[in-house]
Amino acid sequence: MSEASPTLNFGTMTEVFQFLMEIDKLKSVQRRTKVLGTQRQENSAEHSWHFAVAAMTLAPYAPKDVDIQKVIRMALLHDIVEIDAGDVLVYDLAARAAVHDQEVLAAKRLFGMLPAPLNQQFLDLWNEYEEGETPEACFALVIDRILPVVMNLNNQGQSWVENNIRLEQVLARNAFIGDINPELWQHVRGHLDNAHAQGWLK
Amino acid sequence: MSEASPTLNFGTMTEVFQFLMEIDKLKSVQRRTKVLGTQRQENSAEHSWHFAVAAMTLAPYAPKDVDIQKVIRMALLHDIVEIDAGDVLVYDLAARAAVHDQEVLAAKRLFGMLPAPLNQQFLDLWNEYEEGETPEACFALVIDRILPVVMNLNNQGQSWVENNIRLEQVLARNAFIGDINPELWQHVRGHLDNAHAQGWLK
Predict the structure, then answer these.
(1) How many folded domains does chain A comprise?
(2) Is residue B3 part of a domain?
């Protein structure tokens, strides 16, 4: 949104539409993964859509106590903080730690644009995802991690190759998937060994 | 996904991951609306994310009988058929009628990639949205229509100007919003008159 745009009056919905125009910026936050079969990096908005649909389709494979609707809402909100803080590679542990404080401020600023009680509801949902302790947050994290892995397995290891990622890194960051969905991890584990053998992972 | 990609085995989840890789193509379907402040046309995947978050934020303004979780799921699935059928401008009524049969075939092919009962659940949800009769489908349609209108109001009428859209067309296609949310339509109506006066709408 141009800084010069005047605030349009939508009555009680004015703040909601200001928020919706502000988060349009997530469409310009680039990730490392490329859209399959293209040379274009995916952005965090389209990734969030992919993640939310993945939650819908993986619902039958979720632990029984998981509220999938909540996982979908987490997927839709989880990356909005990147509008202020940017996207950081999941394997860059130092940068991920450094960016955390910026993300907390971003969540306050962005979700704070909304009227009550939406502002607190959205912030609570984002915090729950970040803390990663509830069944919904754990299952959401599985999906957020597995999606770029499967995209890499279907794209000659594109983002692994471009970022010099090693098999041990992928195993260390994703082995928790085995605790939540052993069948899924068993298959992924085999495909990762194959990716390593093919040179897609160092 | 490259046609040459072998099918990766994910056990009972194999079909789900094939579907998730296939729908990655929605990230390459271009709409007429541009991402605010850029020269890039938004794609239907990032639009679907925006639509779903809009449903979350507009929940307090929905008619009381609307199940917002269902509206969110409709938002996430509603444009997937465009992978086969393409995006058609909402104001091009002849093209919209012509593309309907292709969209029905696309829904069968794409949702049909999923195992039961997901395949039928997704198809039913898409059909319900298309038919536009339930409270959820009506509210979803309001959001799908209002979002590009508000983006245009914040972007000097970009897609209206580029496609020679007239005020009467926007009024004719969107006046139903007044039946579902009179307050919203009252504000939009005023902004549309202003857009016409500024020459953003013919």
Answers:
(1) 1
(2) no
